[in-house]
TrEMBL record:
GO biological process: polyprenol biosynthetic process
InterPro entries, sorted: UPP_synth-like (IPR001441), UPP_synth-like_CS (IPR018520), UPP_synth-like_sf (IPR036424)
Lineage of the organism: Bacteria, Pseudomonadati, Pseudomonadota, Betaproteobacteria, Burkholderiales
GO molecular function: ditrans,polycis-undecaprenyl-diphosphate synthase [(2E,6E)-farnesyl-diphosphate specific] activity; magnesium ion binding
Task of the protein: Catalyzes the condensation of isopentenyl diphosphate (IPP) with allylic pyrophosphates generating different type of terpenoids.
GO cellular component, one term: cytosol
Keyword Magnesium: yes
Binding residue positions for Mg(2+): D17, E200
PANTHER family: DEHYDRODOLICHYL DIPHOSPHATE SYNTHASE 2 (PTHR10291:SF0), DEHYDRODOLICHYL DIPHOSPHATE SYNTHASE FAMILY MEMBER (PTHR10291)
Keywords on record: Magnesium, Metal-binding, Transferase
EC number: 2.5.1.-
Protein name: Isoprenyl transferase
Cofactor(s) named in the record: Mg(2+)
Length: 250
């Protein structure tokens, strides 16, 4: 158990995919799937906090999601307003700090105000940081980081990974240790491109509204069994107790 506790990821990033299919299977409109998706998210925040995860980052609305039918987009925007009204106090009570990452400029004043209210109310909380990626894209993030670095006077020769990291949307968090995508698709979909360079990837067919504590524990157990090498070499202890070096790996 003590060994297992060491293998709890500090930061988990999640693509919450499958709400639409979950609803379709039940002959319900897609937006109903998103509503159940919010409930799954609240459960996920609770479970992650209970397991000692310090940062949870979720993809709630991508830069590309504007291409969805208008009623689904407006439904998702309304869901932000109702979710903040319904859950903010509860989340704050259990020590959740909420941060929004993404391009706020294109989001309506009402939605922006709701998110900023959530950030303000939870600013002092310390148990877990929930970062909601909203109107977010990984490529947008890299571009905005470069633009802000240059606007701050950085010259070409000063731009390196350490400098750009300070301008990325998640500058306040360590890189995700574990990247989870539900819903059966096996791709990153322009989520945290910069930050997932060395994340362990976990894909599951489970649709997001069904992603409960048992499913989270499966993902955490899978993560705990991974051997993270960050481009180095795998080392192991041989039967004689001698340290041996195995194959190099990327
Ligand atoms: C992907 O499922 C899910 C989304 C685009 C939205 C995720 C949003 C939520 C879980 C709730 C909203 C969150 C907040 C904080 C208001 P999909 O629609 O692509 O599902 P499909 O692949 O089955 O069609």
């Amino acid at each position: 158990m003590a060994d297992n506790a060491k293998r709890i990821p500090r930061h988990v990033a999640v693509v919450m995919d499958g709400n639409g299919r979950w609803a379709n299977k039940r002959l319900m409109p897609r937006i109903v799937g998103h509503k159940y998706g919010v409930d799954a998210l609240i459960g996920c925040i609770n479970t992650c906090a209970d397991r000692g995860i310090e940062y949870l980052t979720v993809f709630a609305f991508s830069s590309e999601n504007w291409k969805r039918p208008e009623d689904e987009v407006s439904g998702l925007m309304n869901l932000v307003l109702t979710a903040v009204a319904k859950y903010l106090a509860r989340l704050s009570d259990i020590g959740v700090r909420i941060q929004i990452i993404g391009d706020r400029a294109a989001v309506s004043e009402k939605v922006r105000a709701a998110w900023e209210h959530a950030e303000r109310v939870t600013a002092g909380n310390k148990r877990i940081t929930l970062s909601v990626a909203f109107n977010y894209g990984g490529r947008w993030d890299i571009v905005q980081a470069c633009q802000r670095a240059v606007a701050d006077g950085a010259r070409a020769e000063q731009i390196d990974e350490a400098l750009l990291s300070k301008y990325m949307a998640l500058a306040y968090a360590p890189d995700p240790d574990l990247f989870i995508r539900t819903g059966g698709e096996v791709r990153i979909s322009n989520f945290l491109l910069w930050q997932v360079a060395y994340s362990e990837l976990y894909f599951t067919d489970c649709l997001w509204p069904d992603f409960d504590a048992a499913e989270i524990d499966k993902a955490l157990a899978d993560y705990a069994a991974r051997d993270r090498r960050y481009g180095g070499v795998k080392t192991d202890i041989s039967a004689s107790g001698q340290k041996i070096t195995l194959a190099p790996d990327a």
